[in-house]
Amino acid sequence: MTTTFLISENVLRTYTDINNNVDSELIKNAIRESQDILLQSTIGTNLYQKIITLVDDGTITDAGNSNYKYLLDNYIQDYLLYAAYYYALDSIYLRSRNNGLLQPDGGENSNAVDRTLYNQKRQVVQNKMEYYNDMLTKYLIEEQNLFPELNNSDKLYETRPDYSTKYGQPFAFRRNTMNAAYANQYGIPVYDSNYPQFPQPYFGYGRTSNKPK
């Protein structure tokens, strides 16, 4: 179980509308879950554990391991702010009781949940979370040479980041591989016009035609 938090409870309270009366344990558990499940899925087990270790050792500073500190300060924490909030919403606004899901009213009583309002709130938080996840993912793709842990997983129990679903172009295949050749042969592009810094794909080995043959 993760006991090292990459974002503090105080930050979560400060930059979201979580009330100060909300139980600290609910927030801490939401941070732990968002790190272990969502963040680890995005950056992979090895990079995740690397950052946890640097934080534990106190060596993630501008003077040492600055690449990891920049990643943590400018991308991971922004993402975790809303990922943790997203995970906390159920515990904050809903309680499981014998007569179903109820919403605490601040006292000893509870009210029936207005699912429409709850779903709207959850969607707003999810949209923000996905935006910062998108920024984090793009940064890692562009700067993956700074983080060797991204691609060195070889264990089944280690999560390896997979950007091929959301960012399948141009990252699904290397250009000069058999897979890339087959993809281009059948008209499947392996690049995206959103990324002009990447060269146009080859359509088969040694061929740069604009149409598959």
Question: Any chance you could write out the topology, listing elements then pairs?
Answer:
Elements: H1 9-15, H2 24-43, H3 45-57, H4 66-93, E1 95-97, E2 100-104, E3 110-112, H5 115-142, H6 168-171, H7 178-185
Helix pairs in contact: 2-3, 2-4, 4-5
Report on the structure:
There is one protein chain. By secondary structure, the protein is mainly α. It has 2 domains: 143 residues, no CATH class; 50 residues, no CATH class. It contains 7 helices and 3 strands, in the order H-H-H-H-E-E-E-H-H-H. Strands 1-2-3 form a 3-stranded antiparallel β-sheet. Helix 2 packs across helix 3, helix 2 crosses helix 4 and helix 4 packs antiparallel against helix 5. It is globular, with a radius of gyration of 22 Å. It starts with 8 loop residues before the first helix and ends in a 28-residue tail after the last helix. The relative contact order is 0.11. The C terminus is likely disordered.
